[in-house]
């Protein structure tokens, strides 16, 4: 299903391919955590252990969007149709196998925290956000149920253009990306292949308000300086439609393939993220700042309905 040239490119970028359309990659924060150097903001905010996290894509290189800020090679996207999808058990077992294989080299590093390294053989979390749009995988609900049986928590990050699938899934935490305060800018940034992409997105925001009853919900704003850091009142209107438990307001990072599309100057400083966050908060009286991580340039907001730290298994 994935062309040989694309496979070669992904392997060069340290992806391990699993089955016909999935992949796993060791997150740099997993490596940093094993060396006791740092942890990702998800661990700080929500209590997810970096060293026990598996970064997964059940639809690697399949996406409706070609977001200008994406660090992935969007120019190589494979469309939106995954035919004859692999089973959830095949994907999960394959990802676990390759994850452990890719971490083997750390066993010989004297600087590695031995207790953490031992923990990596019992992963507790799947971050289903590596590459591509996960809701294009038709068996995603079954995959999440399988993970829950295994007592593994899950985060899903979606672009929000598949509302019918959003209705069906209940990961531990469900993220919907927010990239623009209005329709024209949304189309410019996302470069969506769906003519009704904005309509689909608004439908997802409405669904998210109901999803909060069954799972933890998050809107993640990616701020691109000189492009989408405007109209805070309109961001607030969209946020109110979704009523998420949490909001992450994060800087675009000038890394990977995005460097060919955007400039270093498009990456806002943490102080600028903070300033824009406060502009949005003027229109969101029910939310307040819960936490922030300066080196990740991200601020966490919450409405107080749920504890920011998640239980081990929901």
- How confident overall, as mean pLDDT? 95
Helix content: 25-40%
Task: Tell me the major beta sheet.
Answer: 10 strands, mixed
Q: Which spans have pLDDT < 50 for at least 5 consecutive residues?
A: none
Distance between the termini: 34 Å
Q: Globular, elongated, flat, extended or rod-shaped: what is the shape?
A: globular
Query: What is the count of DSSP helices, taking H or I runs of 4+ residues?
Result: 11
Order of helices and strands: HEEHHEHHEHEHEHHEHEHEE
**What is the beta-strand fraction?**
15-25%
CATH topology name, in short, is TIM Barrel
Give the neighbour order of strands across the main sheet: 1-2-3-4-5-6-7-8-10-9
CATH superfamily heading:
Aldolase class I
How many domains, as an integer? 1
Rg over C-alpha atoms, rounded to the nearest angstrom: 19 Å
Question: Can you tell me about this structure?
Answer:
It contains 11 helices and 10 strands. The model has no long low-confidence stretch (mean pLDDT 95). The chain has a single domain (4-302), classed as TIM Barrel (Alpha-Beta Barrel). A 10-stranded mixed sheet has the order 1-2-3-4-5-6-7-8-10-9, with helices on both faces. The chain has helices spanning 4-12, 28-34, 41-46, 88-103, 114-119, 140-149, 163-168, 183-190, 197-211, 232-242, 270-281; strands at residues 16-18, 22-25, 53-57, 125-128, 153-158, 173-178, 216-223, 246-251, 288-293, 298-302. The chain starts with a helix and ends in a 12-residue tail after the last strand. The protein is of the alpha/beta class and 314 residues long.
């Amino acid at each position: 299903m994935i062309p040989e040239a694309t496979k070669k490119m992904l392997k060069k970028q340290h992806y391990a391919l699993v089955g016909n359309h999935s992949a796993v990659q060791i997150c740099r924060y997993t490596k940093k955590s094993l060396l006791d150097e740092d942890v990702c903001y998800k661990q700080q905010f929500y209590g997810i252990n970096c060293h026990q996290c598996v970064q997964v894509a059940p639809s690697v290189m399949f996406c409706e969007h070609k977001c200008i800020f994406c660090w992935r090679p969007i120019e190589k996207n494979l469309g939106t149709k995954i035919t004859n999808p692999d089973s959830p058990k095949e994907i999960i077992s394959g990802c676990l196998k390759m994850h452990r294989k890719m971490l083997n080299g750390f066993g010989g590093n004297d600087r590695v925290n031995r207790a953490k390294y031992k923990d990596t053989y019992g992963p507790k979390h799947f971050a289903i956000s590596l590459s591509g749009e996960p809701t294009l995988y038709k068996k995603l609900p079954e995959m999440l149920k399988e993970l829950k049986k295994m007592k593994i928590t899950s985060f899903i990050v979606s672009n929000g253009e598949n509302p019918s699938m959003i209705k069906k899934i209940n990961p531990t935490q469900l993220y919907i990306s927010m990239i623009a305060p209005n329709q024209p800018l949304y189309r410019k940034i996302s470069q969506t292949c769906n003519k009704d992409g904005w309509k689909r997105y608004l439908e997802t925001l409405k669904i998210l308000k109901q999803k909060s009853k069954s799972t933890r919900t998050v809107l993640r704003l990616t701020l691109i300086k000189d492009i989408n850091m405007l109209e805070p009142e309109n961001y607030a209107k969209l946020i109110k439609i979704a009523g998420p438990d949490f909001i992450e307001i994060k800087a675009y990072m000038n890394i990977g393939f995005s460097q060919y599309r955007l400039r270093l100057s498009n990456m806002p400083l943490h102080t600028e993220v903070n300033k824009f966050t406060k502009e949005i908060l003027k229109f969101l009286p029910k939310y307040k700042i819960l936490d922030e991580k300066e080196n990740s340039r991200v601020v966490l907001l919450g409405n107080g309905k749920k504890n920011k730290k998640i239980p081990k298994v929901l």
